[in-house]
Design goal:
Cofactor (chains A, B, C, D): Mn(2+)
CATH class of the largest domain in chain A: Alpha Beta
GO cellular component, one term (chains A, B, C, D): cytoplasm
Helix content of chain A: 25-40%
Organism (chains A, B, C, D): Mammaliicoccus stepanovicii
Keywords (chains A, B, C, D): Hydrolase, Manganese, Metal-binding
Largest sheet of chain A: 8 strands, mixed
Shape of chain A: globular
Oligomer: homotetramer
Structural class of chain A: alpha/beta
Protein name (chains A, B, C, D): Putative peptidase
C-alpha cells in the first residue's frame, strides 16, 4: 500500500504539530485531545481514562504542582482541550468490523522527555520552525512520530474497513518514558481479548528503509525513588546527635553498585541523581535518590530489586535512618512469538521488495514497557511482537538534537497496514 | 557607665530596623550604609571597601546572580543606599584622639543567615513586628545586635572623647557566617597597628547578665566546595563509557568521614550538601558537595585538609573524574592573651558588681573568623581577646526562632566602654 | 574402537596411582616422571621442561618453600624420580609417522587442587583405598583421569601406528588450576605447527555416556595477587602517623566489586582471600589479597583489569600506600572451529551409536587455559576445539567428595582415537 | 629509704630471670609460681586463682591449644611449677599488721607481649644474656620490672612490719596487655575493703629519676573480636548464591572508621587484623577481625561500641551474613584522687630531694586496666591513684628493643615504701 501525497502531507503537518508541543508522561493532555478528536471523527469507538487505565498500577504519576504548571501553560495556548486534565491520558480506539475474526492490537506511545531541544539552526525541527514550544520538554525519542503513525494507520484502516474482519484496537499510551504507563493499561484488561499484538518504535539505530520484524533484547527494569530521612545536628558542636542521611545515601550508592553479578544474565544498576542536605555545617537530615536496575531477564531484575531492599534494611540499621523506596516505573523482559516473527518477515519481504527487512535483533539494549502487553498476550497463548521502523538519525535517542527522517513513518504505516490485512483481511 | 533611656530606646529601634532586613555575607549593602551614615555623622573617620579588604583573600564571594537578586530587592525599598553595591562592605571607623596612647580595636560582624525566620506569634520579633522582611534570610545569630552594640559604643566613646587618648578603631565586618570575611580585612592590614583587640559575641548559651571575659575553645575550620566533573553515558546501553561523578562523590563522602583521628586534638568533618546527576538512567557527569573540616587547633585542621586532598587525588585516579576544590571559608584556632583576660576580668568584677563575670570558657565549640585578628595581633606581640555577652535564648543560634534578650546589649556596650577607658583613658 | 579388559584394568590402576598422590601446579614432579616413563617406553619422542615451556610466561610459579616442602614429601616415597625437580613439568610426546599428513595435538592437564580429600567411607576413592596420600592436595577436578586418558590414548595410537600418517603430539601440561600453565607452553611454540588441536575435560555436569563435541562458553579470566604496603603506627597514640593498609584493602575490595557492567558481555569479579595487619592496636602496614576478574570475552576481561589498575592508583593516592599487583594466572575466551565441531559431531554420531553425542554447549561457565592453544591455532587459520567427556558426578568439581565414574575415561580414549584416525588415518 | 646493695643485686637477678622467660596473659604460670614462692617465704598470706578472680568477667582467655603449647614449653624447663596451670594466675598477698589502720593496696602486672625480642647485640638484655628464651614472647612493656618491684616492696615492708599498722595488700595481676585481667580481679572483690590504692608503671616516656605522682589521661577502651559467617559459592558460576563475608568485612571496616566524632571527647577506632576467605575463586564464607575502640571518657567509648553494634546490624541485613562480636578486653577512664595526688606529691618532694617529682600528667595516651581498681575504690569514696616511675628508654614500649634502666626500679620501691609508711605507718 503506497500512501498518497495529500495524506502524507497531512501526517507531516500533524507530526510537526505534536513535535512543537511535547508533553511529558501523564501530562499528554493536548496530545490526547488531538488523538481523541482525530479518532472520533474517523468513526472509532473511543474508551479513555480510567476505562482503560487501572489506577492501582500507576507508576510515577506527577505531583499536583507539575499538573498545575502544565495546565497553566496549556491555558496560554487558547485551545479547546476538553478532556484529560486529570492525567489519565490513555486511549483505546476500536474498529469493530462486526465480522467474525481475530482481535489485533497495536500500541503507540505519546509522551515526551524532560530535555531542552536544541536551538541550533542545523537541527531540522529548529530550522523548520517546529521545535519545542514547551521549554524543557522535547520529543527526543520519536513518540510524536509514533502517535502520528497510529493516527495515520487509523485513517487507512477505516478507509478500507470493508476489506477487514474481526476487531482492530489502537492503543495510545501515556508515559512510556520511565516505563510508567503500560502496566496500568494492561492491568485494566485492554489486551485480554487480543489475539495478535504489535508494539513498535522508530529509529533505534536501524537505518532508513530498514524494518526489523522482531526486537527481542529488552532488559527488564525497575525505576526506584529512594527517600532517606535522618536527623540533622550541628556538625561542629553535636556530631554524635545526627543521623546522617547524606552519608547513608553515599553508602547506599556504594553498595548498590557492588551488587553481585548473576549467573542467569546481565544486569545493570544506576543511581542517576542524588540530592542531600541543607547546609555545609549541618548533618544532613534528608537525601533523595533516583535509581534504576535492569536485568537481561525478569529473574535477574527481581534479584537486583531484592538486593536493593537488603541494602535499604542494612543502611537503616547502620545509620538509624528511615528509607522509603517507591517504584516509579517498571518494564519486563519478553519472549515474543517466533511464529509471528516468521510470518510477518515473509509477508514484508514479499510486499516491500525495496525495503531491507531484517528478521530480528537480539542484542540487549534499553527497556520498554510495551513488554507488559507482549507478556500478557503471550501468557494467554496468543501472539505478540515488537517491531522497529528504521530511520537514519545522526544523534542518539534522548539527545537535544535527536531527529528521525519523518518520511520513514510512512514505511511504518504501510507495513502495519499490511500486517493487519494479513491477520484481519477478509 | 549606665546608659540613659533615650539612648537605649534609639538603640532598640536601630537593632529592630537591622533585624527586619537581614542581609547575608557580602550582601550587607543596606546594613553597611546604615553603619557608615551613623558613624560619619558621629564624626568618625571612615575607611571602607577595598581600603580595608584585600581582594586576594576573599572567600565565598557571592555569584553575580546573588548580587542581582539582592539589589533588586533593595531597589524595592526606596531607600537611598549610595554605597557598597559592589559587596565590599567592610568598614573601619576611627576615632583619633590626637593624644599619645595605644591603639585599641573592636570588631563587629554584620551578616545574616540563609534561614527563614519563624512566623510563629510566640516568636518575639514576629510578635513585635520586626521579623525578617527579606524572606529566606534571618539574623539568627545576633549579628544585628553586634552591629548595634558597635554603633552604640561609637556614640558613647565620641561623647567622652576628651577622656580618651590614643586611637580607637571600630571594625564592621561582612560575612562572618561561613567564616569568610575576616581574613580579607586582616590581610588589608587593619589590625597591623593595634595594641589591644577585642572580638565579641552575644548569647552562646551564657545567661543574661553573665559576661565571659575570654572565650578560647574555637575550632580551626576550613569550608570547601567540591566540584566533580565526570562523563555521562546511558546507564543501560553504555555503562562502561561513563565516568560516574555520583559514585565518585559517594566514595569521596565515605572516605572523608573515615579520615584518621589525630593525636593532637579533636577534629570534625561534615559533607553538608551533595547534588549530583541529571537523570535516572544517565550516568551522572557532575556532582557538587559543600563540606567543612575542623580541628581543635590549626595543626589538626591542616591535617584534615591534607587528607581531603589525598582523597581527591585518589578519587580522580579511581574514577577518571576531575575534581576542583575551592576554599570558601576559613577560621583558625587561637591562644588569646592571658594578661588581658586577667586585667579585664578584674576590671569588670569591680565595675559591674551586679553582673556575673566569668574568667574564661575553654570547651571546644564552633568556629569564628575573629580568630584571624586575634592571631595577627598576638603574633605582633600585642594583646587580643574574645569575650561573650550572656543573654538568655530559648532556642539555639541558627534556629528559626533564635532570639536574645535585646537589653543585654547594653551590658555589652557598658563593658566595652569601660575596657576602652581602661586602656585608652587619660 | 573398543578397549580390551586388560588395557582397561591397567588404566584404572594407573589412574588410582595418580589419584593417590595428587600434586599441585608446577609441583607435578612424580606425575610428570610417570608420564615421561610411560611415553618413553611406548617409543614417543619426548621434549620436556624448558624445551616446551617459555619461562617468560610462567604465572603463579610456587615459592622455594613450597618446592622444598613437596620434595621432602617425595623423598619419603622412596621412588626414583629422576626428572622435573625444577618444576618445569611440561611434556610434549610426539609420534611422527614419517608419512606426509597433518599435525594433530591433544592436551592433557596433570595438576591437583589445594583441597583436603574427604575421608568419608562413602567417598569412592576412600572406600577403595586410593584417596590422597598427599594431605591437603586432591585430584578434585579429574586431572588424574585426564593424564590417564592421555597415556591410554598414547598406547592405542602407537599400537596402530601403521594406520596413521602425519604427526601426533600429546601435550601434558602443568598448572591448569589457576589457569597458570598453558600460556608458557603455547609461547614456547608447541602448537605453532599444529593443524588440529583438541582440548578436553571430564565431567562438567554432563552425564556418563554423553560427549559434548564443542564447549564454547569459557570466560576470559585473570588471576591477580595484590600486596598493599602501608606504614604501621600505634592506633591509640599516633593514629595520624599510619598508612592504613587494612583500610586501604577494605576500600579496594569495595571498589572492585563496584566496577561498572560492560555492554559487550557478562563480567565477574571476586576477592577470594584477604589477610591484613599484625595486631589489634596497631595500624596495619600490610595487606594481601587474592582476586580474579572474568569476562564473557577478552574485551570485557581487559576492561575489568584496567579498572582494577585504576582503583589501585586511586587507593595509593588516597591512603599513601604502595600496591603491587602480580598476574598469577590467565585464560582467554575462544571462538573454536565450527567446521571441526560439525565434522567431529558427525563422526562420533556414526561411530558411537550408544553414546549421546551433543554438538555444543555455550553457557558461560568457568575458565580454562586450554583456550590459549585454541586461540593460537585458530589465529594460524587452523582448527581447534574443546570437548567434554560426560561422567556422572554426585558432587561438584572442587568438592572434597568430587569423583567421576572412572570407566567413562574409556569413552574419552575411544572418541579421541577415532578423531585422530579421522584426521591422521592413512 | 635507701636499699642496700645485696638486696639490689638480688632484685636485678630476679628481674633478669623473669625477663628471660616472658609469659603472655593468663599463661604467667612460671611467673606466678615465682611470685607465690617468694611471697609465701616472706610470710605473706596468699590468695590466688579463683579466690581472687571472678570467672564471669574473664576476657580474652586463651584457647586450649595455647595452654597446651605453653605447658609443653614449661615442661622442657625442668622446674617445679606446682600451681597455676589452669591459667588463673592472679595473686593477692596480704600483710595484716593486726593493728588498727587503713587498708592499702598496690597492683603489679606480670604478663608479656607477643613480640619477638631483638637479638641485636646492642640490645641490653641480649648483650647481658637474659633476653627472651620463650621465642615469640617478650617483656617489651616492663611488667618484669613491675613484678620485681612488687616482690622487692614485699620484702621491705615485711622487714619493717613492726613500724606498720592496718593491712597491706599486694595484687599481682595477669593479662594487663589487651586490658583483659583486671576486671575479673576487681569483680572478685579484692579492693572492696581498700582505703588507698596505687597502680603504677615504669617508663612511659618519663626520664630516669622522674616520678609522676598521678597519671590521668587514660583512654577508655574496648577490644572486640568480630566473626562474620557468610555462605560460600563459586565466584564464576554462581556469584549470586554467596553471602560474601569478605565484602561484608570490607564494608564493616569502612563504616567503623567513619563513626561520628563525639562532642564529649576524643575517640579512636582501629581494625588491626582481618583474615577472610579460603580461595581466589570462591566467595568467602568467613571473616575474622580484631578491633578496638577508645574514648577520652567512658561515655565516648560506650558511644563507639554502640555504633559498632549498629554497623553490625546493618551489615547483617545488607549481606545476609551473621556476625558475632566478643569483647576480649576493656579498660575505662578514671578520675583519680586529687587529695592523694597532693599528699603524695608533697611527701615525695620532701623525702626524695634528688628525684624530679612531677605532680601529674593529663595527656591522653594509651589504656590501662588498673583503671578498674581505681574506679571501684573511688566509687566507694576512698582514694586511688596511678603513678609513673620514670626511666630512660631509647625505644618505645612494645618495640623489640624496648628496655628500661633497671636500677630505676629501686626508685619505685623506695617511693612506694614511703607512701605505705605515710598511710600505714604507726
Amino acid at each position: 500500500m503506497e500512501l498518497d501525497n495529500a495524506f502524507k502531507d497531512s501526517l507531516i503537518k500533524l507530526r510537526r504539530n505534536l513535535h512543537a508541543f511535547p508533553e511529558q508522561g501523564f501530562l499528554e493532555i493536548r496530545t490526547a485531545n488531538i488523538v481523541k478528536e482525530n479518532l472520533t471523527s474517523l468513526g472509532y469507538e473511543i474508551k479513555s481514562g480510567l476505562e482503560v487505565m487501572n489506577k492501582d498500577y500507576l507508576m510515577g504519576y506527577p505531583s499536583e504542582e507539575a499538573f498545575k504548571a502544565h495546565i497553566d501553560k496549556l491555558n496560554q495556548l487558547n485551545e479547546a482541550l476538553p478532556d484529560f486534565k486529570d492525567g489519565y491520558t490513555g486511549i483505546v480506539a476500536t474498529l469493530d468490523t462486526n465480522k467474525p475474526g481475530p482481535t489485533i492490537a497495536l500500541r503507540f506511545d505519546m509522551d515526551a522527555l524532560p530535555i531542552t531541544e536544541s536551538e541550533d539552526s542545523n537541527h531540522y525541527p529548529t530550522a523548520h520552525g517546529f521545535s519545542s514550544k514547551n521549554h524543557g520538554s522535547m520529543h527526543a525519542c520519536g513518540h510524536d512520530v509514533h502517535t502520528t503513525i497510529g493516527i495515520g494507520l487509523a485513517k487507512l484502516l477505516m478507509d478500507h474497513k470493508t476489506e477487514l474482519k474481526g476487531i482492530i484496537k489502537l492503543i495510545f499510551q501515556p508515559a512510556e518514558e520511565g516505563v510508567r504507563g503500560a502496566k496500568s493499561m494492561v492491568e485494566s484488561g485492554v489486551v485480554d481479548d487480543v489475539d495478535y499484538f504489535i508494539g513498535s518504535h522508530i529509529g533505534l539505530n536501524a537505518k532508513s528503509n530498514e524494518i526489523i520484524t522482531s526486537v527481542k533484547g529488552f532488559l527488564a527494569s525497575s525505576k526506584l525513588d529512594v527517600e532517606i530521612q535522618g536527623v540533622s545536628s550541628h556538625a561542629g558542636a553535636k556530631p554524635q546527635d545526627g543521623k546522617n542521611a547524606l552519608l547513608a545515601a553515599a553508602t547506599f550508592v556504594q553498595q548498590v553498585y557492588a551488587i553481585e553479578r548473576h549467573e542467569q544474565g546481565a544486569s545493570r544498576v544506576n543511581v542517576g541523581t542524588l540530592q542531600a542536605g541543607s547546609g555545609r555545617n549541618v548533618i544532613a537530615d534528608k537525601a533523595y535518590l533516583q535509581m534504576e536496575v535492569r536485568g537481561e531477564n525478569n529473574i535477574v531484575n527481581e534479584f537486583m530489586i531484592q538486593r536493593v531492599y537488603d541494602i535499604k534494611s542494612g543502611i537503616e540499621a547502620m545509620f538509624g535512618v528511615k528509607i522509603n523506596i517507591t517504584k516509579v516505573g517498571e518494564a519486563i523482559s519478553i519472549e515474543p512469538s517466533e511464529n509471528m516473527e516468521q510470518t510477518i518477515y515473509s509477508l514484508l519481504k514479499e510486499k516491500f521488495p525495496k525495503l531491507n527487512i531484517i528478521p530480528n535483533e537480539t542484542t540487549p539494549s534499553g527497556s520498554e514497557d510495551a513488554t507488559y502487553y507482549i507478556d500478557s498476550v503471550m501468557r494467554n497463548g496468543k501472539d505478540a511482537i515488537y517491531m522497529n521502523i528504521g530511520s537514519d538519525h545522526e544523534y542518539n535517542h534522548h539527545h537535544p538534537k535527536f531527529d528521525v527522517k519523518e518520511h520513514d513513518m510512512f514505511n511504518g504505516i504501510s507495513c502495519m497496514y499490511e500486517i493487519v490485512k494479513l491477520y484481519n483481511g477478509n
